[in-house]
Design goal:
Radius of gyration: 60 Å
Helix content: 40-55%
Number of domains: 4
Largest sheet: 6 strands, antiparallel, barrel
Structural class: alpha+beta
CATH class of the largest domain: Mainly Alpha
CATH architecture of the largest domain: Orthogonal Bundle
Number of helices: 8
Oligomer: single chain
Length: 451
């Protein structure tokens, strides 16, 4: 019963002591409960219209923004044996500080005087090259002298051929004249013989004619022999010219062959010299790798190799160094369905492991112990298990991150999106819809991609 009438049965019969009437009377506690429920219902309805900050979340860890500021392993460029540790774990090191000294283990480099011996080999090889270069110069001069001598001899032979040719021409003319004289003497002797037989010519004249004929015949035979000798001399001169060409050609070819052999040897020696110089330089540089130094300022975090006398391989990690004063960033991993909602400059709220916080993700203004950040980098490919990596840097307009944080600290982050009524957010989550992507965000993302 609502008990709204002024003429209440309870008032009229108060004090009568009717037990059943007392049982049907509404107690005061029930009225209070009903008022509370009504108030809660009204508050719940009003709460549905309260603004809610949509967000996407992700887990990650604290890292350094620049790759050069992230923890790096100190590696040995050569294989060797650990002789001494100059720094301990946790020590602060400056760039160039000696951390480890190692010794050589390769048989090739065990000789302590290897650089001296290589230097001596280089000196001997240079002397050999110089000697062969002088030898090549001598062969070049010899070839030049042979060519000049050949040309001189050939010129002499050519002159001799010309002289022999002129002698042949001269003897040929003399032979023609001698033949004319012989013909005249023969005619006269024949006529004299006829006259002598007839008794017209005396014996003395006949004998004079016969002597003249014999002299002309002798001159003809002598001139023919002279012409034959001249022709032989001409042929000998031509043959001598060919012999000079062949003889000097053989000598020059032999000298050129020697020159080419010497030049080839010089080339091989220069190649060997380059190899020796390269080996000397490599060995000298290698000797500088026996001392492993810090590449930059930082802290020696962890020694991956322990003890003295332990062998290490080429390129093997020895220790880990954390660079000093890195620019901090948070590495968050978000789902593919959420990464499209983020863009560079998106505000992010961060909760660091070990740092007390009271979080209301939908009402970031009421949260305590969280810190602000801004999205700096969004990967274009998934990083691990289908999730995308997002790098978040401190928000300059928000509270500074705690200085006690270290690289590797776990982080839980929320990317702040649109503000919507609470009832809409509940409805979205019940239906499994993603957060809203407004037209402004879409246009910004499209503009960034076009850039």
């Amino acid at each position: 019963m609502l008990n709204l009438s002024k003429n209440s049965v309870e008032i009229q019969n108060r004090g009568i002591g009717t037990k059943s009437l007392e049982l049907v009377t509404t107690p005061n506690s029930g009225k209070t409960l009903s008022r509370i429920l009504v108030a809660l219902f009204v508050m719940a309805v009003l709460l549905l219209f309260v603004p809610w900050q949509q967000n996407i979340n992700g887990h990650g860890a604290l890292t350094a923004l620049s790759p050069a500021d992230r923890p790096q392993t100190l590696q040995s460029p050569i294989g060797g044996r650990i002789d001494k540790w100059h720094k301990q774990e946790g020590d602060y090191v400056k760039k160039g500080d000696t951390i480890i000294t190692i010794s050589e283990i390769r048989e090739k480099y065990l000789d302590p005087d290897i650089l001296k011996r290589l230097s001596e080999q280089i000196g001997f090889k240079k002397q050999s090259i110089d000697a062969n270069e002088n030898k090549a110069i001598s062969y070049s001069k010899q070839i030049e002298a042979l060519i000049k001598s050949r040309d001189y001899k050939l010129q002499q032979a050519l002159n001799k051929i010309k002289q022999a040719k002129l002698k042949v021409q001269s003897d040929s003319i003399d032979l023609v004249a001698t033949k004319v004289q012989y013909a005249i003497a023969d005619t006269q002797f024949t006529r004299s013989t006829t006259l002598f037989k007839k008794g017209v010519l005396s014996l003395t004249n006949y004998e004079n004619r016969k002597r003249s004929f014999n002299d002309a015949l002798a001159k003809l035979l002598s001139q023919e022999n002279k012409l034959l000798d001249a022709k032989n001399n001409y042929l000998n001169a031509v043959i001598e010219q060919s012999s000079i060409t062949a003889d000097y050609g053989e000598k020059i070819s032999k000298a050129e062959s020697e020159l080419n052999g010497t030049t080839a040897y010089i080339g091989e020696s220069q190649g060997d010299l380059s190899k020796l110089q390269n080996e000397f330089t490599s060995t000298a540089i290698r000797s500088g790798f026996y001392i492993i130094r810090a590449p930059q300022d930082g802290y020696l975090v962890k020694a991956l190799k322990a003890g003295i006398g332990e062998n290490i391989k080429e390129g093997e990690a020895i220790a880990t160094i954390m660079p000093d004063n890195p620019q901090m960033a948070v590495e968050l991993f978000v789902k593919p369905i959420d990464v499209v909602l983020l863009k560079k400059g998106t505000k992010v709220r961060l909760q660091f492991d070990g740092w007390p916080a009271l979080v209301f993700s939908g009402w970031p203004g009421t949260s305590t112990g969280t810190f602000g950040g801004v999205v700096k980098v969004i990967d274009y490919v998934d990083s691990k298990k289908g999730q995308y990596r997002v790098l978040v840097v401190p928000d300059g307009n928000d509270e500074q991150w705690p200085s006690q944080l270290r690289v590797g600290t776990g982080v839980y982050g929320w990317g702040m999106l649109n503000k919507v009524p609470l009832w809409y957010e509940i409805w979205r989550r019940l239906n499994g819809f993603p957060p809203d992507l407004t037209s402004d965000e879409t246009s910004v993302t499209t503009t960034e991609k076009s850039k």
